[in-house]
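Handout, page 2. Input:
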Amino acid sequence: MQTNFTEVQLRDPEIAVSNQILRSCVHCGMCTATCPTFLLLGDELDSPRGRIYLIKDMLEQARPATEEVVRHVDRCLSCLSCMTTCPSGVNYMHLVDHARVHIEKTYRRPWHERLLRNTLAAVLPRPGLLRLALAGAKLARPFSRLIPGQSRLANRARAMLQLAPASLPGPSPIGGARVHAAQGTRRGRVALLAGCAQQVLSPSINESTIRLLTRLGIEVVVAKGAGCCGALVHHMGRHDPALDAARANLTAWGRELDNGGLDAVVINTSGCGTVVKDYGFLFRDLPERDRAAQVSALAMDITEYLSRIGYAPTRAAPELTVAYHSACSLQHGQQIRNEPKALLSRAGFRVVEPGEGHICCGSAGTYNLMQPEIAAQLRERKLGNILATKPDLLAAGNIGCLTQLSGAGLPTVHTVELLDWMAGGPKPEALG
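Output:
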């Protein structure tokens, strides 16, 4: 793709990166075949190629974002299926992230959108606030269908209440910053990203991860000061708050690296893993660049790490059929496809893959709250493909997907909970 940025514009490192990304695009349109929003809406501007044209024009002209640009960029799930499909290696992730930062700086959204985004940015990364918010939403949930109208505001309000869990688990007894000692001879030492929303929605995921790793001889550190990875605000275009969250993690994990060392930074929420693995890029021109590059190199999904250290079950096969849902952030963002399925098969499960496995379920971080209509269509499409495999349960490696796909009469369980169960841990509560 030919670009026309001026020499002055190209002195901006963000523009320089976007220029190279744009120039790598050959307009082939193969991305349109795997883009969820183009699949549903059929609008070229709701495909990666269409958004690339809009972003190119906006950045080249150095003008504020228009309502049209914002509408189509907002509809992007950042599922990154287009990057898996693209034969030219276009890094759409970095381009759309740049566009969102530009939108955040130059476009004033309607008051209710600002209110929603500010609320989500303030609440979701803070487990204490999120627990209070979900407790309130639980009380209001039965009245969600009484919200009148089909406006965007009404649909979003209904979506927020309907996504709130009917029951909320209590805080984990092993939560908080601490060191979990390895059982037997210590084989390794890792930091675990405890996450934010996951701690509240499903603390059993971290508990399973810690139990399994410590039984395998791995010391697990939940570092003091580590918190949200920054993904939630990063995908809203809030660059500085995202860097602040990442910086706190770099400081916390840096202390552990300097005092005892780490073999890996283990992450069991794939949406977080994609961003942590990108810390090296985010901090490439900042003083923390060396530490960020070091952390990015150490970051591993829990299934990557278990494959590396040699997971093995200790229980007999349960004779259960598992529909494995590959989260977009895992299969497209991190290019991890085989490890989770291989581990589940090794654990004794019969693993089936639903049709259209490359298409997003509609969760995408906060997407199902901000674009509930599209998210609902994607959920129904995904569930239809999953249920067609006639599974006993659904497994995935991302809390957002598990939350999005729950409530359809099929148990939803994190992959690591099943692996922990088959290696001596308790049966996941979702399985009864």
